[in-house]
Automatic annotation (TrEMBL):
UniProt keyword terms in alphabetical order: Signal
Protein's cellular compartments: Cell envelope
SUPFAM superfamilies: Periplasmic binding protein-like II
InterPro entries cross-referenced by the UniProt entry: SBP_3_CS (IPR018313), Solute-binding_3/MltF_N (IPR001638)
Stretches with biased composition (Low complexity): 26-39
Entry protein name: Polar amino acid transport system substrate-binding protein
All copies of domain Solute-binding protein family 3/N-terminal, residue ranges: 61-287
Gene3D superfamilies associated with the record: Periplasmic binding protein-like II
Family (UniProt): Belongs to the bacterial solute-binding protein 3 family.
One GO CC term, this protein: cell envelope
Signal peptide: 1-19
Length: 289
């Protein structure tokens, strides 16, 4: 099925428009897919989920916070303004099924959760659901599963069978992500002696790997898969921790149970009719869960 998406900072969505997706393309620094509008040949009619009793930052608008520096989940297109990526597609379709417009607020990862119920209704930005985070916010059901993954230069003789094998190595992570937390815990507990370079952007991690400044990048499997798929002559996956699955969810205010229920219904419908699977395959490949 051909896919389509209207990629605007504020997107006007109607209940009859489905399967919105971004098209193909890439930039020299980031692993992205540029926007295009293609006609769907297989549209399915759905009914709008009732959100009349849900309060939003702006009436008739679902406002989403994200850090658009995490391709392919979210990044900025080559026009310098348009947000694109898997999370953008997911939230566009969620808003569509709720009968709302979508407004995307691009903000830094540091402090992103403090903006919930203040600057935006939800955060959808490759957020791992953790018990600690669930103490201060609600989460939707998971919309994608990830694993901590080690990426090395293509052709590297570095053998990694667990994260502990990064002992004595220099690695890069995006600051304040789950990868940063996991690797920092291994270091702080003296499990391994690893030099951790923390970057504000995941793209900087891969630039450092390309330049030979580090031995490996540790990141989410979906990000790793996308980089390797588009640049297999530059990067390869050395290890994927399949024993420790991480699930991503949409974060919202701790008391916003009505919005949580509505979003969960939209996600369930998107999973049932194949929209989520097709979109995951488009951005990450056929083996993404």
């Amino acid at each position: 099925m051909k896919k389509k998406i209207a990629l605007l900072l504020t997107m006007s969505l109607t209940a009859g428009v489905l399967g919105m997706m971004t098209g193909c393309g890439s930039s020299s620094e980031e692993t992205t897919k540029e926007s295009s509008v293609a006609e769907s040949t297989d549209e399915t009619q759905t009914s709008t989920i009732d959100v009349s009793d849900v309060e939003f930052i702006s009436d008739g608008v679902l406002t989403m916070g994200c850090d658009a520096n995490y391709p392919p989940f979210e990044t900025i297109a080559e026009d310098g303004t348009t947000p694109i990526g898997y999370d953008i597609d997911v939230m566009t379709e969620v808003a569509n099924r709720l009968g709302l417009e979508l407004n995307v607020v691009n903000t830094g990862w540091d402090g992103i959760f403090e903006g919930i119920d203040v600057n935006y209704d939800v955060v959808c930005s490759g957020v791992t659901i953790t018990e600690e985070r669930k103490e201060s916010m609600l989460f939707s059901d998971s919309y994608i599963t990830n694993y901590q993954t080690v990426v090395v230069p293509a052709g590297s003789d570095l053998k990694i069978e667990s994260l502990n094998d990064l002992d004595g190595k220099t690695i890069a992570v995006q600051k304040e992500t789950t990868s940063d937390i996991v690797m920092s815990d291994l270091k702080s507990t003296n499990t391994i002696d690893v030099n951790i370079v923390q970057n504000e952007k995941v793209t900087a991690c891969f630039t450092q790997l390309t330049n030979g400044e580090i031995d490996a990048v540790v990141c989410d499997s979906s990000v790793a898969d996308s980089y390797v798929a588009s640049q297999s002559d530059v990067y390869e996956i050395a290890y994927k921790d399949k024993e420790e699955a991480e699930v991503f969810g949409i974060a919202m205010g701790i008391n916003n149970t009505k919005l949580q229920a509505a979003i969960n219904q939209a996600l369930a419908d998107m999973e049932a009719d194949g929209w989520l699977e097709e979109t995951r395959n488009y951005w990450f490949g056929d083996d993404t869960e």
